[in-house]
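Bumping with the actual sequence this time:
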Amino acid sequence: AVLNLSLTMLPNEFQRIIDEQRLPAGWLAAIIDNQGRVVARHPGGGVHIGRPATADLKAHLDAEREGLMHSVSLDGHPVTLYFHTSPQGWTYVTGMSREQFEGTVPRAVLQVAAAMLALLVVSLIAAAWVARRIVQPIHTIEQMALDLREGRPLRRTRTGLLECDQVALALHDA
C-alpha cells in the first residue's frame, strides 16, 4: 500500500532551522520551494521570503537536481552556490562569497606544501651529492686509463667505491 503524508510547516519554522545552522561568516543558506520562491534564507531571512530565486539559479534548478555554480546573490554579491533539490521539488542552497571560495587556501594545505617543497630541495641536494660521489671515482679511473695509455706513471688511488677501487688497482698493477 502506498501512503501519502502531508506536512505543513510555517515559513518561520524553516527560517528557524536555517538560522540554527551556525554558518561561518559570509556564508548563506536558503530553502526554495518548488515554484522557485525563497521560503527561508540566512542572512536576512525576512527581507527575502517570497522573493523569486535568481534567474540563473532557476535555470540550474530546472536542468539539474544538484550542483555547484557561480551566481550573484539576492543581495547583489558574487557567490558560489551548492544546491540540492528534494524529490518534492524543494531546494536547499548553501553558498559563500566567490572571493572566499576561490581565494581561500587552508593553513594546513600551505604547511604541507611548504614541507613538500623543503623535502624536494633536500632530495635534490642529496641526489646531486650522491651523483657527484659516483661520478668522481669514474673520472679518476678514466684519468688513470688515459695516463696508462700515454705511458705516464700511475699512483695508487682510492676512490671510495669498492668496485672503482678494484678497477683502479687493476689499472695500477697493469
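The C-alpha cells above came from a reply further down the thread. The chain has two domains: 11-103, 107-173.
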